[in-house]
Amino acid sequence: MQKFEKRNVFLQEAQYIWSFAMKTVVLAEKPSVGRELARVLGCSSVSKTHIEGKDYIVTWAMGHLVEPADPDEYDEKWKKWDMQYLPMLPDTIKLKVIKRTSFQFNVIKSILKRPDVDNLIIATDAGREGELVARWIIKLCGYHGKLRRLWISSQTDAAIKEGFRNLKDGSVYDNLFHAAECRSEADWVIGLNVTRALSCKYDAKLSAGRVQTPTLGLIINRENEIKHFKPEAFWTVEALFDGFKAQWIGKNGLPRLKNKDMALGVVEKCSGKQAVIQNIDIEEKSELPPLAYDLTSLQGDANRILNFSAKHTLQVLQGLYERHKIVTYPRTDSKHITTDIVPTLKSRLKAIENTKFGPSVKWIISKDINPGKRFVDNSKVSDHHAIIPTEEVVNVLKLSSEERALWELIAKRFITVLYPANKYRRITVTLDVAGEKFIARGTESVELGWKAVTGDIPKTDDDNESDQSINLKNLQVGGFIHPKKISFVQGMTKPPARYTEGTLLHAMENAGKFIDDKVLKASIERGGLGTPATRADIIEKLFANYYIEKNGKELFPTSQGFELISVVPEQLKSPELTAEWELRFERIAKGLEKSNTFIKDIKNNAVSLIADIKSSSIEFKPFNESDTACPMCGKMLLTAQGKKGEKLLICRSRQCGYEQKEERDYSLKRNKSKQEKIVDSKLMYKYTDTNAKSTFTLGDLMNIKNEKNK
Fold first, then answer.
1. Residues 629, 632, 635, 636: is their CA dihedral positive or negative?
2. What is the CB-side half-sphere exposure of residue 26 using CA atoms within 13 A?
């Protein structure tokens, strides 16, 4: 009996020791984030794939490690691009490990199977796509243990510690994962089927999708507006007084006249006449500061002010977030903060006090910091709050010039939103000259407020620009003043401006204005076309496919872009498809709709789209053919331009794929087509000895043959 009791005690002690030794795996999205988490958690045993400590094993995903399988991995016949095999509609989406990072996946899998691991914390980016990254890895690894979620918006030590103190059960985010998986599967079903159908029907390298195609549509619609715009001349009449100008206003309340004779008539009627001051209106105005940055608005300003592309802005921003840890999470769609951030505002300000913004920071800190309900709004923050500085002390000397420039935009905007309103007086003087009405408008500053901070930032369209300063000392109602000169000016109506990357991002974010349906408009207004994190890649893809070109900052659609829009099914040209999807993703994320219902509808939609493409009688005829025939397939090459402005010649045929720069330096500046590679393989087989290394190039092998013939 005593032996039995001793054995039980031993087992209990062993079980206690074993449970004490059990470890928790923390799965981050990127190595840089993983290293920071490991440092804060006290992990010190470092390897290339993970960092281990007493209680935690921190590893990382290196971005996506798992992706949807290619079509041929479902059915061998789908390996061939052939219209007869479309649409491709697998029962369920298969997953596969990405080959180039498979070693990291295998490490994570082996860690999760260790006997001393009984807990997993998802620490990938806190959002829909971050959830997908982690869940797919977990799914392929076959892990079924305890699951929790870390949800943080910055990489500072304080934020990480706070996040680990407030871990959520993984099940809380199950529906978020289902919504993300639905998005991925739907893009696979629609994107791959439509792209293949268009490419096969027209034997052209065509690419279409529910985000990139309507984005291209925005650019083309704007180009058509410009193309069909007919400028019209108009005339305005201006009276110059001592210290200010006044503009003639017609009985319709508008300042423009349709012809020169009418303008000349007003000038002749009023010249040499006294002006009677009929009214002086002084209105006290208050202009609130702009809200903090979300990713899209930051990319827009960085493009306009710093000439950064959208993608480059995100790359620099990622470094400020991950490496320097001086800004919060970048991929956010919110310009607001939550109530729990308010107590940290003072420490965030102190962290940037030793920079050029020191005087402004000290002014804010000297007062009671009151960010107001306009900036602090929990209801307008979904996954992450606005991009603002962290509590990490900033050393600008450690930043590159680009990092410093971008960080200064963020810091300045953060300070601005905490400043009071810009107060001024709007002065309107109404005058009568020989029975004609003239109005002078001006402003008088009362308190600069936030404008004192942003004085050196170029004005935006939303800024309240001062017309002129009007000295009221010598002006009184009923008084007379004499115009120094009255003249007319001719102007021309202007077409809408072409998109830049910055304004295109804004249009993508606000795609709801292109939709009439109120429900769909409301759904897409919460997200727009794409996500803040993917919009830059969408624009890059349009460049890569030669659908758009850039001249200065302006974006132009190419011939291929115009032709693609002409052959794509109507449904894919409009933001409405994305609006419909986003509405349903939101419902899935909230548990209000089943994911299988959505996917069933998507597959039915794919069947309909493929049928439309097959039956279409529209031809694909790009109008930018060169006078050069493709040396591989004989079709006329198309002229194109790379993003850096380089001129290219490309073959439109999907099966060929020939491409070269116009300089035609064959040794350095051209890409081999599929047919060339096949020819190379045949020549290599013909001229290669059986023991030749497979890593030799064709040139190497031809040199060997020449040596043998000498």
1. negative
2. 31
Residue entry with tokens 């548990």: 591
- Let me know whether 128 and 268 are in one domain: no
> Of the residues 438, 469, 492, which one is the last residue of a structural domain?
492
Spatial separation of the C-alpha atoms in residues 138 and 500, rounded to whole Å: 41
Nearest to 118 by CA among 144, 139, 142: 144
Which range of residues forms the domain containing residue 630? 625-671
For 383-484, where are the E strands, in sequence order? 422-433, 436-447, 480-481
Which helix (H) or strand (E) element contains residue 550?
A: strand 548-551
Please indicate, yes or no, if residue 17 is contained in any of the structural domains.
Answer: yes
pTM over 0.90: no
Residues near 467 by Cβ (< 8 Å), separated by ≥ 6? 441, 442, 443
**Same domain for 257 and 402?**
no
Beta-strand relationship, 625-629 and 636-641? antiparallel
Q: Sign of the CA dihedral 520, 187, 644, 633?
A: negative
**Cis peptide bond prior to 87, omega within 30° of 0:** yes
Residue 175 belongs to some domain of the structure = no
Task: Indicate the burial class of 591 (C-beta count within 10 angstroms; 0-12, 13-18, 19 or more).
Answer: exposed
Q: Report the Cα 293 to chain-centroid distance in Å.
A: 13
| Span 634-686, pLDDT tens digits | 788 888 887 777 788 888 777 787 888 755 444 434 555 555 555 555 554 54
- Distance between CA 532 and CA 522 in Å, rounded? 18
Residue with tokens 């710093």: 306
Spatial separation of the C-alpha atoms in residues 710 and 704, rounded to whole Å: 10
CA dist., res. 300 & res. 487, Å (int) = 39
Same domain, 216 and 334: no
**Active-site residues: which are they?**
329
Residues 36-72 have pLDDT tens digits of 899 999 999 999 999 999 999 999 998 789 999 999 9
Classify residue 173: in a domain, yes or no. no
Q: How far is CA 59 from CA 50, 160, 163, 322, 638, in A?
A: 4, 16, 17, 16, 47
- How many structural domains compose the chain? 6
Give the list of residues 6+ apart from residue 610 with CB closer than 8 angstroms, or none.
86, 87, 193, 194, 197
Residues in the chain: 710
Q: Is there a single domain that holds both residue 520 and residue 557?
A: yes
